[in-house]
Amino acid sequence: MKLSEVKETLNAEVVVGQEKLDMEVKTAFGADLMSDVLAFAKAGSLLLTGLTNTQVIRIANVLDIAAIILVRGKKPPAETLSLAKDLQIPILTTKYVLFETAGRLYVKGIVGCLEKVESGSARI
Amino acid sequence: MLESDNNLHKRSFDIEGGNFTNAGTVSTRIKSILKEIGLPDTVVRRSAIVCYEAEINIVSYAKKGVINLTVTPETVEIEAIDEGQGIPNIELAMQPGYSTANQQIREMGFGAGMGLHNINTYADIFDITSEVNKGTHLKMIIKKH
């Protein structure tokens, strides 16, 4: 699915990365615990989260996350915005809650970057 | 940087305890250094993840610390050395879900008790030593191949 279709599916607003809407994405991970994101999210995935601090952007950079989807109508603060622009990481914001966001993407063919956690961890 | 010595790169970065605004900057820098060297994506990502966890730990629990990066022909070695509260029970701290994080750390999305466990998962070799009220020393090695 193209990022532009993700935007439409979620009635999302593109906050950063208007020029990257042609990017293809296939997988996603959703969490508000950054340690879990570090443990489980895979490169090239969408990151669905309600956290808006700069750590989210740095983690997305470290993990090669394709784009960040801020759920529950969260708007990123100025320092998060400028870091996302510097590191060229797209941010979309949607009013849907995390569960609804994940469900809407799932029925359109986006799958989780892992299904379940075996013995506490999953390695890249 | 010692470029003459068989592709060996050595860099050292200071980390300030309690500075959550800058937390993660050293890891992003190390990631771009490793990327520039041309290492495989998975090696770069795994190095960046263990470095990030170690950096967040120093910011969260120590007064100050240093992260040393050494790239040898076979490995990426990351050492995180801090002056801080130390870890009384390493075995317990390694368990997924165990955390002593305060509210400030948790509000940033950390303190899930996954840090050391993640490092153990992503590093090929992980050594940890710690002394209460002195500090903690992590050594993480990621093999290039």
What does this 3D model show about the protein?
Chain A has a single domain, classed as HprK N-terminal domain-like (Udp-n-acetylmuramoylalanyl-d-glutamate--2,6- Diaminopimelate Ligase, Chain: A, domain 1, 3-Layer(aba) Sandwich), CATH 3.40.1390. Helix content of chain A is 35%, strand content 17%. Chain A contains five helices and six strands, in the order H-E-E-H-E-H-E-H-E-H-E. Chain A has helices spanning 3-9, 34-40, 54-63, 78-87, 98-107, and strands spanning 13-16, 27-30, 46-49, 67-70, 91-93, 111-112. In chain A, strands 1-5-4-3-2-6 form a six-stranded mixed sheet, with helices on both faces. The radius of gyration of chain B is 15 Å and the shape is globular. By secondary structure, chain B is of the alpha+beta class. Chain B starts with 8 loop residues before the first strand and ends with a strand. Chain B contains five helices and five strands. Chain B is 35% helix and 30% strand. Chain B has one domain (9-143): Heat Shock Protein 90, CATH 3.30.565.10. Classes of the chains: A alpha/beta (124), B alpha+beta (145). The A-B interface holds A 32-39, 43, 49, 51, 53-56, 58-59, 61-64, 79, 87, 120-121, 123-124 and B 20-21, 23-25, 27-28, 31, 41-42, 45-46, 48-49, 52-53, 96, 108-115, 117-118, 121-122.
